[in-house]
Structures are given as C-alpha cells and as structure tokens.
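Lab meeting minutes (informal)
Scribe: AK
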Amino acid sequence: MYPLFVKKVCIDWNRVPANSYLNRIPALKDVEEIPFRSPVTYFAGENGTGKSTLLEGIAVAYGFNPEGGSRNYSFSTYDTHSELWEAITLVRGIRQKKWGYFLRAESFYNVATKEMEYADISHPSMNFHERSHGESFLALMQSRLSSPGLYILDEPEAALSPQRQLTLLLEIKKAVEIGAQFVIASHSPILLGYPGAEILSFDRGRIEKIQYEATESYQVTEMFINNREYLLKRLFSNEQEDGE
C-alpha cells in the first residue's frame, strides 16, 4: 500500500467558538483526532450526524474550495461552510500532494459552471451541463481519478444508478492501485462495500469503526429486500393509523 497523503485529522476545540453549532453535534464534539489507516475511508451515518460537516472541514483544511473542485478552483456562490476547518490540523504523510478533488453532490452544478469558465485551449471544457446529472458525475470521476492524490467525495451516489455506482467502485480501485487516497461520506450499501475500506460510523453519538454488515445502510437494505411486502404493509398501515 502506498503511504497516505493524510494520516490523521486533529481538532483543536479551543479554536471553535463556544456558541457554535459544532459543539452540539454529538459525534464530533469530543473528538480530538481521527487516524486514517486505509486508502479508502468511509464516513457513514444518519443525516445530521456530522459526517458531511467533518468531510467539508477536512477538504477546506487541505486547500480545496468549499463548494468543490480541484485545488485550483477558487470561487464562492454562497458561503455555507462551517468554521471547523480552522480548528483542524492535518497530519500529512511523506508524499507530496500532486492532484486531488473535492466532489460535493449539492454544489456540483456550481462547479460544472466554473469548469466551463476555467476552460481554455489547453484544458477544454467537458461540457457537464450538456449531459445528464449522472453522466456528468461519472464522467468527472473517470477523468479526475487518473492521478495519485487525495479525493474527498460527499455522497457521490446521489446522481448515480446502482450500476453506475459499481462503475465508480472500479474507478476507485484503479485510482487506489496507483496511489490515491479517498475519504467518502456515503449512504450507499454498494459504495460502502469496497473491499478493505475502513468505515467510520457517526451514529450513536460518537465516531467508531464498524464492519460493513453493521452499517445501517446495509441492514435496512437487506431487511427491505428480504421482507419487502411485510415491511411495506407495516409502514403503510402505521401511516394510515397516524392519519386517522
């Protein structure tokens, strides 16, 4: 395995304002450091548990634009990122950063627009706006994962069909084999299944390493597939009772 670009994330809570909402996120508020042990690390957990907030903080501390893009992107459509990045110190590996990318599903439209503005003769635009959302996502990943670097992906499954998620897994594997490192926030039971990945759960009010089969994404999906009719019957009957 290649040395990692980022080996550890350290958080100095003295640099976070006392009235910040960050202090009220259970999984984050007492965390001082998070080591990375695998070239692929997943942040998993329910909405609102802080995984995307931490992912964003790591990305901005590393030098990425808050809305996404490569380290060369510098723009702001609407600042919504937290001050967490200012409290983060990244313990870097011995390898020099060469390339990388921060992908955010929620602001991809803005990045695609900027990509057109940044294009020139040497770097022609990929014309993301002329493709479907899913096609743009996958085309971006296939073109950007060609070099060793740190890739931070926030819910990349948002625009991808299950089949395209499998394609993304293959692209991640190819990138890892040439020395890339990934930190990914995801709900996808397909993406979370990457072999050898470390999965950090943000549920239960703390960050802890868990096995793939212990993720809620896997358990809910497995339960639904194996008991679809029963679960839907219970779900719909409970809603009908609530509406009466």
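Next up, CB showed the second protein from the same session:
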Amino acid sequence: MERMGASRPLPNTPKDTLCAAIEAISVSTELVDEELKPYLDTMLTDAIERKKGIAHQVAESGILPVLAQILRRKSTLTTHTARLVAELARDAPVREQCFDTGIVSALVTLLLSQDQDLLLHVTQGIARICYDSNLQQERFLRLGAVPRLVSVLLQHSENQALLSSCLLALCNLADMGEEDGSMLAWEEGAYFGEGERMFRGTSRYSFGISSAITVVRLKQWTNGQYSVTVEVLQRCSAMLWGANNGRQSGHHLQNFSHLGNCPKLYKVIKCSVKNIPRNWNLRAAVFHTLL
C-alpha cells in the first residue's frame, strides 16, 4: 500500500524495542492499522509489566497527542489504544499530560460508546488519570464525565467489571477513591426509596482488624436527573470497637466519632446529571468534607 507524504522512514530497529515502537507510533498517520498494531502491542506489554522508565519515556516522546488522535479515529485500534492509555495512566508523568494532549477529552467522548470492552478500558483510564489530582478531577467534571459515567453504569450494571470501574471513576472524581480499585469488592445494597440505587465497596486491610466502606448512591430526582453521593467510612471490627468503647457495634456505619483510630471521613459529590448523555449537562458540582 502506497503511503503519501511520508516525511521520514519507519524505524529499522526490531519491533520488540520500546524506542522503535514509540518512533513508529509517532508517524502513525503513515501506517495502516495492521502495521501499527504490533508497535502498540509492544508498548502495552511494557506498560503492563511496568517497565522501568516507560512513563517518563512516553511523556517526553510526544506521542500522547498521537494516541489521542487514534482514540478519536474510532478504528479497529480504538479499544487497543484505550487499554494502552489506561495502563500508562498508572504513572504520574503520563497522567499529568493527559489533558493538554487531548487524552482526557477523547476518553470522555468514548463514554458514549456501546462497546463494553472499550468502556471498561476508558473508565479505568479516567479513574487512574483523576486519582489524587484535584486539577484533573475538575477538568473531567467540566467536560461532563459524571453524567456519562452514570449513564454507562445504569445501562451496563450487569457487567460487574464495568460496574466496578465506573464506580471507582466516580469515587476518584470525588477524590475519595484509589488508583487501582482491584482491592474493592462492590455489591449493590438495599433500596432506601423510589429511584434510589446504592452500591457498597469494601476493602479490607490491617489483617482484617478494620475495613473501609465506600458507598455510592444514585438518587433520581426527575426523569433522567440524578444526584451522585460518594461516602467513605472507616469501620472497625467488633473486637477493636469493644476495646475502645466497651461494646460490640463494629458492624454499624455510624457513631464513629469516639474512635480516634477509625475516623469517619465523609465526602459528597452532588450534581444534576442526565441519564441520556449530552454535552455540558453537568449543572453543578458541590463537594463537602466533614472530619
């Protein structure tokens, strides 16, 4: 296949080297998908293995805008590229450049897809990019990520992996989550009222002595309008609760103000969202923190 306007030759280095992959991706407009895929595979393998220095190498190479363009093309490589971006986003040097390079806006646009495999990688990428970054969280909020995440969650709640990824992304947007949600086990809780759905994620640590409870509530106010509430509570075991309070009530999620070792951390993100995703339908976002 003849390529028009090639400005530089393709790398002669073996395809299994990261430098060759980066160089090839940087001229991706001169390659067809079949030729580009092996180089994306190389980078994906290195990213999954967390190869030393890959994050800085990618961030300094200037290929993130190219990856954003590949995502926008919606080709056979879209899902593959979304997975690569999600893996690269584990590292801060890449996360910091995702907005200016167009990665953030490309991921938000892809939330409109119906491809559940693609949505899984997209939501994982969003969760990791906005982890522990108020700036990135605000950027995603302004682009309308919350209503689209809610829409994906409601449409595909039977897909446990995608459900968990959406919930983690919502938690991280509220600055209440984790970079990697693999330690969180999510389950849908009881309904408290009409139009309400509640999801509870539990993460155990300290050898089972205590656990963190993450609660995400969706409340439908009007047709297609939802509020999203995210809470994180520290729950102590009955034994630890009894040692500190003289009574066993460690299974309850209230009255933790007396436990210095298990502080109650509460944060809420409320926003008006549309069930049917549209641009700029996030009307307000209010954050409250009570310590």
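CB comment: The longest strand covers residues 210-222.
No objections, moving on.
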